[in-house]
Amino acid sequence: MAYTIADIASALGTTGEGDTDLVIDAVCEPTEAGPQDLALAMKPDYAAALTEGQARAALGWEGADWREMGLKAAIVAPRPRATMPGLTRLFDPGQGYGTGVHPSAAIDPSAVRGPDGTVGPLAVIGAGAHIGAGSVIGPQSYVGANARLGDECVLREGARICARVVVGDRLIAHPNAVIGGDGFSFVTPETSGIEKVRDTLGDQGEVVDQSYMRIHSLGSVRLGDDVEVGALSAIDRGTIRDTVVGDGTKIDNLVQIGHNCTIGRDCMICSMCGLSGSVRVGNNVVMAGKTGVSDNVFIGDNVITGGASKVFTNIPAGRVVLGHPAMKMETTLEVFKGLRRLKRLFSDVDALKKAAAEKGPASRK
Fold first, then answer.
1. In a domain? residue 18
2. Annotated catalytic residue, options 130, 216, 259, 324
3. 181 and 233 in contact (C-beta within 8 Å)?
4. What digits encode the pLDDT tens for the residues 174-187?
5. Active site residue 259
């Protein structure tokens, strides 16, 4: 696919300068860019690398002297990075699934499909499922009985939408994501050691071996519009009520969302995060990688958790936390500084003890 500089600028809603008839067929980093590539020189540090490539055009910042950089054309924007969604969409070749229904797909006769959709090889669509217009059910993916997908959803290879799950428009589920597996819910015939420890904060009392009885998940999962779920991530269905994810929330690879969780709109949940059951998350929350959240915790709007934070208690709106346990970031950084000083502190105490011992009891009278 190829576009002129004028075409690209128009699609991005920004400005093209210089030879706007120059044809571009790919996007590259400055050092790797050839004559037909658009180099991403979005700030001066990147622009300095243009001399290592052969780019004739670049995406640059407002006011950049692209002629001085040796270019014939440029696309400029007040915030170049904000043009990346449109630019990458323009040049994305897609997955090559084709259109229509592959002969090897298994579609129950009672399923309903909207127009202009795709069903790939070995895909399965269950009884009573409803697929919106323009949705892509990729190779080996699965839509369970009575599940509902909105318009323009994309299920990548092996993605699973389980029975009775309800999905809004424009979901993107990456390879082997599972939406609607049963929650991890079990109970013992008598009070378990886990329950005792919650009450005593450490003492199990008399230890008795017990077996676990499975609690079935009668709830489902509901996803809003424009949700994205990364590869190998799982969102469990609720026990009685539904697990809910709000509009615009983005979930990275290898994320676990437990049963009964409620997540607000426009949240960002990064790789290897784990949310235990019944966690409530507000709007515009960002969880950095490996954040872990205990069950029944509430996290307010606009909270940010640093990488590998472990959240054991509620977090009020707007707070930035870090650490194990998660505390205000500035508090955790002070704790880290203290830890680094411990060795010196121990040495100082040893020296003081040695000096006191050498002076003997008489020196302390």
1. yes
2. 259
3. no
4. 999 999 999 999 99
5. yes
